[in-house]
Amino acid sequence: MEPLYYVRLARKSWVFIVLSLVLAGAGAWVVTARTPAKYVATISMLVSGHDNEGSLSTALQAAALSEQRIQSYASLLSSRRLIREVVPDDQIDEVQAAVKAEAIPATVLLRASVTHTDPLRAARLANSLGTAFAKLIDHIERPTRSSDSTVKVTVVDEAEVPVTPVSPRPAVNLAVALLLGLIIAFSLLVLHDRLDTTIRTTQALQRITGTPTLGIIEYERDARRLPLIIRREGQSTRSEAFRSLRTNLQFMGVDRQPRSLVVTSCLPEEGKSSTATNLAITFAQAGWRVILVDADLRRPRVPSYLGIEGAVGLTNVLIESVDLAGAVQTWGDDSLSVLPSGQIPANPSELLGSQAMRDLVGRLTKEYDIVVVDAAPLLPVTDAAALAAICDDVLLVVRHGKTRREHLVRAGELLSSINARLVGSVLNFVPPKSGQVYGYGAGEGYKPEDTNERPPLVGV
Fold first, then answer.
1. Mean pLDDT across the chain, nearest whole number?
2. pLDDT of 367-423, one tens digit each?
3. CA distance 18 to 201
4. C-alpha–C-alpha distance, residues 81 and 60, integer Å
5. Gyration radius of the chain over CA positions
6. Among candidates 302, 342, 338, 300, which has minimal Cα distance to 321?
7. Taking Cα atoms as reference points, which of 249, 306, 230 lies closest to residue 273?
8. Among 160, 45, 43, 41, which Cα is nearest to 110's?
9. Between 152 and 203, whose confidence is greater?
10. Residues 6 or more apart from 35 whose CB is under 8 A from it?
11. What DSSP designation does 404 have?
């Protein structure tokens, strides 16, 4: 993985990383506070050869003997035999675990350290070990009872009462905790990112659908309450995004422009109805003769978005209880034609896949420049598939962070099975800071300058 991947992951999930570091720091503080302080007392001893005869050769042999046995003496310092001389039998295991002995390289010095929560007891144990060790070596290295020992142990530095504890170390504990917290946080983020199959980038969307991403609609907080792009005089990022979508649809093919377009999604609540409605509005604003057909006969949303009556509409036209002219309504200053859903029928799929619906789409494509059809989601029901088989093209709306890759694969297979043409996709509800949306002045649009504030032209 590239370093840039981790940087983007950290920027996207910085709150989680900060929270992990705070928890790690708090854990380090708890561990440090609950860990009893430990002190180390150290004693140093010199191992030397003892010359009984006073000759030079005997002295050299004794010195060589002490160098050869220095490692064995280090092990003997922490032996049960020695510790038994210092403490009672019930404390041998505890003291043995607290004693650490080592031979200083290239010397005949031994160093023994005792770790204990009581600094005074640590010093006393270390000095007692030194005294007992000297007596033990004198006893072991004595050839006969009547002769002197060939090795002599001398205490060089007695153990002093330690003042500063060796543990816990708050700074080290904090550093280790923060490092572990950072590693665990990034590991969880990478694991979540790898296991997350939701669509979050246009690259992933294009790779799965095999079609271009024709529009990227930014999430706006008040879009659910005010879904239409006519608010704020059409100067918003959503307005510009739908104009860009209209342009991409208009010029995507010179020889073949879509005359009837089904707008659908994989699952509900992905923004297909608002996308279809706003797309129809942008076509009408460009001077196109456009009709918006609310063909979602299960959960119609277009009448509530546009504020029109939806009791009479598509269903009535298909069952021939009302003629088309009596069901179509005109909305807005740009003369957008709207065919509401009408009454919700008992058999929406059969009605939308009927010959009457096919004839109606053919009639509408002759009377209007483009027919925008808001259809039900693809995967739960077959309504959109029936419409896709009738209309020219399909536009798939994908919700950022919700629509999954397996949903897109299934939707693509469904459209391919009926030979429907997926013209492209729209990535909806994209967070403004995701890097997928071109900003228009923090949502204020790329407005023309105020001519009253322009400086006068010089040299004209």
1. 85
2. 999 999 999 999 999 999 999 999 999 999 999 989 999 999 999 999 999 999 999
3. 25
4. 30
5. 42
6. 342
7. 306
8. 45
9. 203
10. 167, 168
11. B
Q: Which of 426, 415, 367, 425 is nearest to 387 (CA)?
A: 415
Measured CA to CA, the distance from residue 129 to residue 73 in angstroms comes to 13
Instruction: Indicate the Cα dihedral angle 20, 25, 30, 34, nearest 10°.
Output: 130
Does residue 221 have a pLDDT over 80? no
Characterize 48-65 residue by residue with b for buried, 16 or more Cβ atoms within 10 angstroms of its Cβ, and e for exposed: ebbbeeeeeeebeebbeb
Contact 315, 345 (CB under 8 A): yes
- Tell me the pLDDT band of 442, cut-offs 50, 70 and 90: very low
Tell me how long the chain is.
460
Distance CA 76, CA 90 (A): 20
Question: Which H or E run includes 47?
Answer: strand 39-49
Burial class of 325 by CB neighbour count within 10 A (0 to 12, 13 to 18, 19+): exposed
Q: In the numeric block, which tokens belong to residue 92?
A: 């041998």
Distance CA 77, CA 1 (A): 52
Of 305, 276, 308, whose CA–CA distance to 293 is shortest? Answer: 276
Name the H helices within 169-271: 170-195, 202-209, 237-251
pLDDT in tens, 398-407: 999 899 999 9
Is-contact 38 166, C-beta < 8 A? yes
Q: Is the peptide bond before 168 cis (omega within 30 degrees of 0)?
A: yes
> pLDDT tens, 24-83?
999 999 999 998 999 999 999 988 775 555 544 555 555 555 566 777 888 888 888 889
CA–CA separation, 431 and 411 (whole Å) = 24
